[in-house]
Amino acid sequence: MVDFNRNGYINSKGDFDIAEGFARRVDSMRASEIRALFAVANRPEIISLAGGMPYLGKLPFDEISKIMETLVREHGPKLWQYGVAQGDEELRETITKIVELEGLDATAQETVITAGSQQGLDSITRLFCDAGDVILAEAPNYVGALGVFRSYQVEVVNVELDEEGIILAKLEKTIINTRARGKRIKFLYSVPNFQNPSGITLAVDRRKPLVELCKKYGIMILEDNPYGLLSFDGQLYPTLRQHWKEGVIYLGSFSKFIAPGFRIGWIISPDSVRDKLVLSNESVLLCPSNASSLTIEAYLKHFDWKTQLSAYREGYKDRCNQMIETIDELLPNCKYNKPKGGFFLWLEMPEGSGVNSKDFLEAAVEAGVAYVPGTGFYDNGDGENFMRLSFCYPSVEEIEQGITRLANALKKTYPEVKF
Amino acid sequence: MVDFNRNGYINSKGDFDIAEGFARRVDSMRASEIRALFAVANRPEIISLAGGMPYLGKLPFDEISKIMETLVREHGPKLWQYGVAQGDEELRETITKIVELEGLDATAQETVITAGSQQGLDSITRLFCDAGDVILAEAPNYVGALGVFRSYQVEVVNVELDEEGIILAKLEKTIINTRARGKRIKFLYSVPNFQNPSGITLAVDRRKPLVELCKKYGIMILEDNPYGLLSFDGQLYPTLRQHWKEGVIYLGSFSKFIAPGFRIGWIISPDSVRDKLVLSNESVLLCPSNASSLTIEAYLKHFDWKTQLSAYREGYKDRCNQMIETIDELLPNCKYNKPKGGFFLWLEMPEGSGVNSKDFLEAAVEAGVAYVPGTGFYDNGDGENFMRLSFCYPSVEEIEQGITRLANALKKTYPEVKF
Fold it and tell me: Could you tell me how far CA B196 lies from the centroid of its own chain?
């Protein structure tokens, strides 16, 4: 047993070992299965249904490059300089107009720019959670959120979903049970639209009741809405925040409908939280990137992004339809919720089939297709009879071929199962 | 007294108050005096000697905009897409060549890209520090580092400097005393070159002995070197990390010698730390910005950045010389260490003068000049007889006039003092 106080990083063998000094939170940081998979999934012979990358191939980069050229020539010194911790004011104004499309009234003052929505998640968890606190989260859940929550040594308590989203009666029971255990519930984390990975959308008529329930129990809601503009039919769903400004913090992102390469997202929150978020930005980033912020601002200003958005919706709808069509044809006994938008389809193996999606992955990759095993989206080992299939990046043809490879490999590996 | 477990965010008046749920660490996050100052300092009639913004005015943005146009046209889909958590490999290769200029052998594998050096500081503190741990830090110290350390509820213990940097005998005594108090020392934080705010450079012949001392006591060193390439005479100083690869983590940044607007820095560390830093990047950012990384890569590749660097050095030297000349003329009884590079001069008020630089700031701003009071660079209220004067951003003429305004205001406010 080494006494760190006396010996510092010098271990029991008398050697300096830098890992001796890690903080306790490092124990709860671990590599996600999903990330480890990406190296494999990126091999050219593999059709990847694993990633969550938006499809950018058809963007008119010739036109965009000219916008960039003008921007740098005219505003270079501002683009390349430090900005303010809250983020560029003009971009914050523009963001209020984007969320207005979803019926959310917001001001630039309430808005803080983040280095992607991920940094928003990190900042909110940093501001609210001590080790041992509880976050209520939809199960299955976004793997990147689980990673953040773990890194703050938070206990994630699962909230059950049906095909219309969070089941309110079960949520209430979970709140009561969790408090009975003496735990502090810091917030409910929800992705209400086209949730990652389940593809589920919270029914419109459940939204106000969900907010009322949280209000009754004095629980803050963290609403994460990266996909909201990407419904297949153009429908826009009301935000939770619009129902309750004091108690809902809203996370948004440019990553899914413009481009993730800039790492720009935003948080809309009550003033007392906004003030702390600005301090958090100063501490983590000094300030968001001016180069990224002003480029997005120029794109939105000089480019017909709403028409581009319609093209994205159409493209993702076509891809999703192809995926569904091929699944219905080749894997008719596998169930799924039909997504209304977003990037993902959550495929359930036939009941009692004994398929373990984590074990099967190797055979799938062997057959030239990759997906994410369902276990990655649970903190408790559940999800082995699910696969997350993404239809955002591959072409319609690749999707058809990918699902075909997947079906063939399943049938070959589990000849006794009726898929 | 409200029972959070029972009532959540509902306060003693029965109202929902989101601030009820803040984590304990929020108590230690506070707005820095410096940031609050920037709003004032940015008024056009004020000559600001307060900020740490590099001077970018003379960059040939016409030429750069053409590089950008080509980059976006040819590599748009890669620029705009997600990257990998460790950061773009080609840029990491390039970084190894940059640090090689300072004699540091590094590999791309050891290197992790961060969202500015600030995020590197945050990540290292996150990985190593539990609440109550000690960080040894040069006093005065970079205000952005103090902010990060506070946000992790760390105790900062000051290490004394003379004009040649850390005083080794005093450091050793501090280590012994701190451990005698039962505290865990997690690392020594040092900015060895042209330190912010003191302008002090660690003497070359103290570098190896400093490393040996830390090695002896089993203490990791966090070496932060944003200004290393910006010596006035082009001299490059040996890094601490080159003396001790197992025990020194190196932070670098493009912010000072290319541009801060991209928020791109780097960390070079032992493998066991690198692995955790990649997880930390996934958790905080998903990945660094491809758009920013590839733009910097293109700038370094297609632009004569070394000649530009010489121009920066000359420019900063001229500005610093003007500052010194005007101080020597108008404030001959104020002391300072003559900087060998970097951005800052640390001005000491005459001994026993009773000048409180925090109180005096209002009068200075009234007279049309801003600086940062020395108290911002200490965690314990020290520093009131110092001012940090930055010579990086204003022109030579503005510096002359700014110091003149400062001198006049000092003499007017404290007529009894011989400055």
Answer: 6
**pLDDT-derived band at B34, boundaries 50, 70, 90:** low
- CATH number for A61-302 (one of 2.40.440.10, 2.40.290.10, 3.40.640.10, 3.40.390.10): it is 3.40.640.10
- Residue B295: list chain A partners with CB under 8 A: 291
Mean residue pLDDT across chain A: 94
Please provide the distance, in angstroms rounded to a whole number, between the alpha carbons at the two ends of chain A: 54
Mean pLDDT of B262-284: 96
- Say which residues have a Cβ less than 8 Å from residue B397's Cβ, sequence separation at least 6: none
Facing residues of A220 across strands?
A187
| Sequence spans of domains, chain B | 33-59+307-413, 61-302
Minimum CA–CA partner of B275 in chain A: A31
Place of tokens 């809250």: A86
Would you call A279 and B31 a contact, using CB atoms and an 8 Å cutoff?
yes
Thinking of the domain A33-59+307-413, which architecture would CATH place it in?
Alpha-Beta Complex (3.90)
Question: CB of B302 within 8 A of CB of B67?
Answer: yes
Q: Can you tell me the ipTM of this complex? A: 0.95
Strand order through the sheet with A386-390: A344-348, A386-390, A372-373
Chain A interface test: which of B283, B299, B305 (most A C-beta within 10 Å): B283
* Burial B19-50, CB ≥16 within 10 A → b, else e: ebbbbebbeebeebebbebbeebeeeebbbbb
Tokens 């959670």 -> residue:
A129
Amino acid at A140: P
- Which are the contacts of A344, defined by CB distance < 8 A and separation ≥ 6? A52, A194, A196, A197, A198, A199, A388, A389, A390, A391, A392
CB contacts < 8 A (A, B): 296
CA distance A413 to chain B (A): 32
CA angle at A295 for the pair A290 and A300, rounded to the nearest 5°: 130
Predicted TM-score (pTM) of the model is 0.95
Contacts of B279 in chain A (CB under 8 A): 29-31, 147, 151
- Spatial separation of the C-alpha atoms in residues A271 and A68, rounded to whole Å: 34
Q: What share of chain B is helix, strand, coil (3-state, %, to 5)?
A: 45, 15, 40
Q: Identical fold at A33-59+307-413 and A61-302?
A: no
Q: How far is CA B373 from the centre of its chain?
A: 16
Beta strands in B177-243 (DSSP E): 185-190, 220-224
- Considering CB atoms only, which of A185, A272, A289 is closest to B263? A289
In this complex, the residue of A10, A81, A187 whose CB is nearest that of residue B56 is A81
Q: Is the pLDDT of residue B266 over 60?
A: yes
Q: Compute the distance between CA of residue B252 and CA of residue B226 in angstroms, rounded to an integer.
A: 5
Q: Nearest to residue B190, comparing CAs of B256, B124, B246, B289?
A: B124
* Strand, helix or coil for residue B132: coil
